[in-house]
Amino acid sequence: MNSLGFDKKKQDTKVVVAMSGGVDSSVAAAMLKKEGYDVLGITLRLYNQGRVNKSKSCCAGQDIEDAKKIAKQFDFPHFVYDYQDKFYSGVIDNFVETYAKGETPVPCIKCNQTVKFHDLLNEAKKNKADTLVTGHYARRIGNQNSKLFKAVDKNKDQSYFLFATLRDQLDYIRFPLGDYLKSEIRDIAKELNLKVQNKPDSQDICFVTTNSYRDLLNALRPDLNIPGNFLDMKGNIIGKHKGITNYTVGQRKGLGIGGYKDPLYVININKKENSVYLGEEKFLQKSIVYLRNVNWLSEKNIKSKIKCSAKIRSTQQEAPGILEFNDKYCTFTFDERITSTSPGQACVFYLKDQVLGGGWITKSI
Q1: Would residue 206 show up in a list of annotated catalytic residues for this protein?
Q2: Among 21, 59, 176, 186, fewest CB within 10 Å belongs to which?
Q3: Domain that holds residue 81
Q4: How confident is the model at residue 60 (pLDDT cuts 50, 70, 90)?
C-alpha cells in the first residue's frame, strides 16, 4: 500500500491536487510528484472582478501564476477552470444573505461544501483521478468509512472547516499535510526551492481584501444599509444603527453608544424588526445551541445523547457538553456557559481528536 493508501504503485496512482498558489498546496503537489505519483494540478478561478471594483480574491491572477510556476518547476500538468459564477452563488451570495438575515456566516465551510469538495472533486473524477488532494491541515484515517481527525499541528488545525464533508467525499479526499507542523512545511518548501516558499499565508476570508467585511457588503448590497433602532434588553430605544449588516453578535466597538457604566455589546439582531439589541457582557453567555443540517461523520450510530466536546469558532478550544438528538431538533448543551454564539455559525463536535460531525446554529439560550 502506498503512502496515500492505495493498493497500487505510486506511478499508477493519479492524484489531482487543488492548488491555490499558496505554500501548503504547492508543497503537497511537489512532495507527491517527487514521491513518484502521477500528479495533476488544478486551480479554480473563483473571482469575477467585474462585480466589485478594486478587489481581488483567492486564486486571483498572481495566485494562478504561482500555481503554474510550481507545476512547471516540477514538470506536471496544470489546468485552470473558471468557477467564478459558482463561487459567487455558493459562497459570496450566501455570505451576503447570511449577514442580511442578521446571522454570522462561515464562508470557508461553504466554499468546501459548494466548490472544493463538490465541483473540484467532480473535476478530479472527470480526469479519472484516484484521489483529490488538498493542503488542509487535518487527518483522515481509513479508506472506507474514513474518519476525520485534527491535524498534528493544533495551531493550524482546519478540521473545524471540514465538518460538512460527506462520508463518500471523505473516502475520496486526502490531506497529506495533516501529519506535519506548519514550520516543517515551510522547511520543506525551502528544501524544494519552491518559488512560493516565502509567500504569506492567506487570510481567513479570502475574498475580503480590506480590513472589514463591511466594505464588501456595502459594495455588493448598499441597499441593505437600512437604518434602525438600537434597543436595550428591555426593548427601550437607546440609539440608531446604520443597518443590521454592519453588526455581529458580540461586537463591542463601533456602536457609537456611550454614557453607560458597563460596556455594551451586540446581544441579538432581529431582521424582522430591523433592530439591534445591546446589553452587558453577561447577556452574551449561553448554555444551549440549537442546530440544523447536522452532518454526522462518526462510525458510531447517533444516539439520543452523546457526551463529547464542541466549539463554535475555529480558533477556540472545544468545550465539553452533551449532544442530544430528537425528532424535532438537535442541541448541544455546554457544561459551562460560552459567549457570543450567533445563528449562522457552525458548531462542530469532537471526541478527543476525532471530528464527530457538526451543524449550523439556529438559536441559543
Answers
A1: yes
A2: 186
A3: 12-191
A4: low
